[in-house]
Design goal:
By secondary structure, the chain is mainly alpha-helical. It has one domain. It is 68% helix and 1% strand. The chain contains 21 helices and 2 strands. The protein has a two-stranded antiparallel sheet with strand order 1-2. A hairpin with a 2-residue loop joins strand 1 and strand 2. The two termini are 41 Å apart. The relative contact order is 0.13. Keywords: Membrane, Transmembrane, Transmembrane helix.
Amino acid sequence: MQRFLSKNILINISFFAFVVILLNRFIKHILTGYTKDSWGITEFLINYQGGFVRRGLLGEILLSIYNTTGISPYSIIISTCILAYIALATFFVRSIIKQGYPLVFLPFVFFLGNPIINNFWVRKDVILVLLFIAAIYWADKKSNISLIFYNLFLSIALLIHESIGFFCLPILCLLLCKEELKQPNGYFKTILTSIYKLVPSILVFLCVIYFKGSKLVADKIWDSWKLISFPFDTYVVNEPPTAVDGISWTTIHGLRYTLKNLVAFESGIYIPLAWFLTLVAIYYVLTNTSTLNFRLLNYTPKRKFDKSIVSATLLFQFLAVSPLFILGCDYGRWVFFWATSSFALILIIPQEKLLTILPKLAFSASEKINTFLSKYLNSKIVLLLCLIIGFPGFSWNLNSVVNSSFIVMLLKSIFNVFTTILSI
């Protein structure tokens, strides 16, 4: 009993110390600031000044607000990202506590810690996950008005960034098919009816895929922001930065990065193998989160995540996200979409409903994967994996892997505290 209490106390201290470390990083990012040509900021600046183009909705709104009120676009971007991250963290913490599940895994790099650790919280990703949650929430409702809301939220998200289409449309289609199967319709008619209910979102998705932009459009977008000053700018950037110029990139352009990584080594380590092992480790941790049933302050988990449902959901959502792994090298961000969208589904949709929605193939395949992994991994090492797993937000490199792991971040912070004390 005393050993258990000591272990719990140590975990509590480490957990809250890590949360403090993340908050410290978060505040440092805010105070250090971002230049106009940094990827996170420029991604928000894409607008419709060169014509309709993918990812342009937020930039057009920002430009309109500035022209009407004179409010700094930078302040709106940073404020929106902060509020979005707080809202996402609140959703997961409240939902998990309300349903009595463990929440120790939340701050790590493979979940909510990812945007802060890899410094992409000033991007559209957190907003996309929030809109995904809103769309799933309304799709699970049985009212007639729900059709308007889930299409509205998904369409807005698609106009912000098309990547949500990959991990939201498949599960929405399954959700709607489930509802239609209750009606006396044939299977083919059920699928057509489900797709019909998603027509607005599908059309928007096709539009943003087709209107990918061009070099001329990118130039016009950047020209529309040239006379607007940003607080951390030190020089004028005449050419459109990568995030703006990226709207004109072809599919082949993205595939080049993937093909390049297929034969790449870093510090003598084969990068595809490194990512494969990282993804396997993340999958194993997330499917065994119920072993992390430690008491945090006065909160003690009362329920366990159903491993079969978690496994099947993770496998299905990974297949949905997988095109992003092929089309772009921002693998750490795709992990964020994978993990958060999977657990959002588990927390929003009743488990008995998920059992009937997800394909049987997802359950059988995940069961085989779990059986295979259990031969080589023990559930007792889940906490250890939480401590050592690390990965960058973008292209793989060993330094980023090491520095993004919990244990290294914690040790560095302790060292910095002692160094500061000794220097006084």
